[in-house]
Amino acid sequence: MTRRNKPRRPSIFSDPNPVPNSLFGEILDWLLAPLLLLWPISIAATYHVAVKIADEAYDPALGERLEQVIQAIRFDEREGTVVHLPAPLPLTQSDLEAGRVAMQVARLDGSLVWGHGEIPMLQFPERGAVEQIRFRDEAMAGEEIRVAYRLLPAGDDAQPLLVQVAENRRLRRVLSSHIISGVLLPQFIIIPLATVFVWFGLTRGLLPLKRLQERIRTRRPEDLSPIDLATVPEELSPMVSAFNDMMTRLAANLEAQQRFIAAAAHQLKTPLAGLKTQSELALAEPDEQNMRQYLQRIASGVDRTTHLANQLLRLARVEASVVRLQPKEEVDLPTLAKDVLVSFVPQAMARRIELGYEGVDRAGIRGHPLLLREMIANLIDNAIKYSDPEGSVTVRVRYTPALALEVVDTGVGVPACERERIFERFYRILGTSEEGSGLGLAIVKEIAENHGASIAVMDNPQGKGTCFRITFASSDKRSLS
Question: Which of 10, 243, 301, 435 could form a disulfide with 14 if both were Cys (CB 3.0 to 4.6 A apart)?
């Protein structure tokens, strides 16, 4: 026995085309994914804030060292610029790593006046650096340093002085690390807790869905009553309302099917009872001639019952198509009507009825060929049955201005008071001598409605008889003379 792999639930990081199969998982994705995406951004923002805080803590002390150097600078007419501070010791790598401060007084052309020459020169002096102390980040001897600087006018000398004080950023990095760890470490606890609370909240929030699911699951199969909207959450009301509408339509369909089954059973019971009676009489009849008449009646009854059963099957097929079929095939209506008309030539010749076609040669509609053929065949068969001998049946396909199919006969006609009822199942006009099941026109109506067409019954415009007109709402208007 092989184990089938359970399909994986798609998330927002996967292909968006598959339909999600878990509402809980989809909501959880959209709640937690932004949190996971924002976390790296939060880390980067925390780092920049921590660096700024560290600079704000250490920059004032560095600025004070710079002010001390500036206060020690004197300008003498004979000696020039003099710094009244001891000459600093040479700066080594270990001194820099240990956090020793480097100091420098130099001219903008790069000539050193006093201090350490290792501090990088200012490449682009700013105008504001003359009035106040400025800070910048540099690299020296492979180490990141923080530099405080200021420009000073050098008396009559055209070259202003650049005073700089620099220190290693190591202590600042230590402070930044403490700030970052103090901010981020709690997040490692908060985020899992948030995930747990979100999971718990979603589980509690989706409980109404589960209760609704249980209510529907525990219903009896015959219970199609609507669900009370007052007992469901507001967000589920549109879905439950649509579900109630579907249940109402389903109940109506089931009721119609039950009526149809009851009527069909009644219609089948009568001919079957007649067949049983005729067979019993035939078995009890000693005279061969009378027995032959009984057998002929039995054969005729079998034909009628077979026709009724075929009509019932056709109607069931059409009703199933109304639910499931979406007409998409291109059908040339005149060609289909001519083909069906030709198939009735033997039946028309037996009754000495003339068949004819009038109208356009081509007219396309979107539909199902088998159902349209059944519809046209029922109309032609009905017209031949109810036409007088030596009469005529004409099929027309023309624009009125919409595309219309007409079947015109020269029969007895349909009274105006009966024209609505003749499309009901098993209904037959009283006083007619023709045998039938009363289902042919019901099938025609079902197929017409399935194709978005309307059907009308009117008098033959050329005299005696009836005209059945089926008008299609949409068509490909193209005709060839």
Answer: 10
